[in-house]
Amino acid sequence: MEKTWNNKAWFMVLPVLVLVAFSAVIPLMTVVNYSVQDSFGNNQFFWAGTQWFEETLASSRFWDALQRNLLFSFIILVIEVPLGIFIALNMPKKGLGVPVCLVLMALPLLIPWNVVGTIWQIFGRVDIGLLGYSVDALGIDYNYVKDPVDAWVTLVIMDVWHWTSLVVLLCYAGLVSIPQAYYQAAKIDGASRWSVFRYIELPKMKRVLLIAVLLRFMDSFMIYTEPFVVTGGGPGNSTTFLSIDLVKMAVGQFDIGPAAAMSIIYFLIILLMSWVFYTVMTSSDAQA
Amino acid sequence: MESTSKSKFVSFLVSLFYILFLLAPIYWLVNMSFKTNGEIVSTMTLWPHQPTLANYVRIFTDESWYSGYINSLKYVIINTVISIAVALPAAYAFSRYRFLGDKHLFFWLLSNRMAPAAVYALPFFNLYSAIGLFDTPWAVALAHCIFNIPLAVWILEGFVSSVPREIDETAFLDGYSFPRFFVKILVPLIASGIGVAAFFCFMFSWVELLLARTLTSVDAKPISAVMTRTVSAAGMDWGLLAAAGVLTIIPGALVIWFVRNYIARGFALGRV
To answer: What is the ipTM metric for this complex?
Structure first.
């Protein structure tokens, strides 16, 4: 269906534009402003040029945090996407089980992020948490406060717990849209379970799966609250992701210049990924 | 058909184990919220042996606790109302018309949904302090618009697009003015979509901590910030923390039933 060309539609978009510009453009300009200046307090600012950008790009602190973030996102995707598909395939397709599964599975998605952190902070403790206690009882030395590997394992399990359901729900939405006739045709052809998945289910899930992968990538790339509550970025700096480092720098140490420069680099990475996301999504819109 | 009943059983087990994995940590939180601190620290018990409501009583009677919930609800509701109100006409415009820069605008909105809150924490702090909104629910409500308005526009655009254009045209032929058509015809037609969009705005504003914490100090402190403060207070009050956590899960758990068929659509920004 062709849309009509009408520039008056701008009036309907105007409130959104004004509000989001107020919340997004003004603060972003402040960040740009800070990123090229130096301050010695008392609201006196001096032109610093690209100094902060050069410093940020040269600092191992930034690259380390970026690497941790990328590694975390990678691990998350490798676990959550296949697991999400697998569970969606095994979900009941009709009957009372459907709404019950949907509601129970969506539950972790609706919990405030700091409470997610609190839940796992408690659950993983060796002294009072069921998980920590059980693992300890099995004779495995586990302490997410002291051991970097344990801290990572805890954060990954927490994220799998928190977000796998998103992948499940999206895949499930794709699966239920497949007409029964497809399965019947496959049965007549004597198709194996694998080829049903490969040639019927996977192509139908492609679109939702793309959304799931991109959303999970971006959200895990901006993760802040959950690791902040559970590990606070530690032990050492082992779980200090970009967001955590940024807030530490800006609010904790008040290094506004470097923090602003880092914000802009961070934001540009996200913008690039949003563009990929948008292109993929709108091109699959056109296909559908 | 032995093989299918067997595979059905395996499917059932997979779903069951996944749900148990999801519910175990939540159960543990609920379990702890009914225990005394003595029981939590001294013994490992799978259910409360001396169940107590003291933690909940404390939250409902201590103002510094229950005001946290009220503050959170205030900004969440303000944010939801603003987001839906401005997103509705925009969603209609994006769904029905082509106009100068529409695609760029749509992308720009999306990029805000994807922007990390950490980038905005400091500038928001300065901005809202400068205009005197710091430590009010309005500051948090406006700040959360940055990701909720794009979300609401995207979800509502999908719902508006599913209304046939002939309905608009018939209404205009019948002499409806545009505002009257919007309120009397379009809004009732996409009522379920508005409900879903409102739910997701409510939810994303409710679960966010970083901005809410940065933009408030005393008067408008949200429950999530009250909780983090208590963690560091002298001696860990685990039972109280658990009870506070349980109470934050309840709003989502109550309304999720009504949107169960639209959950995927909401998370996919209306694109399923």
So the answer is: 0.84
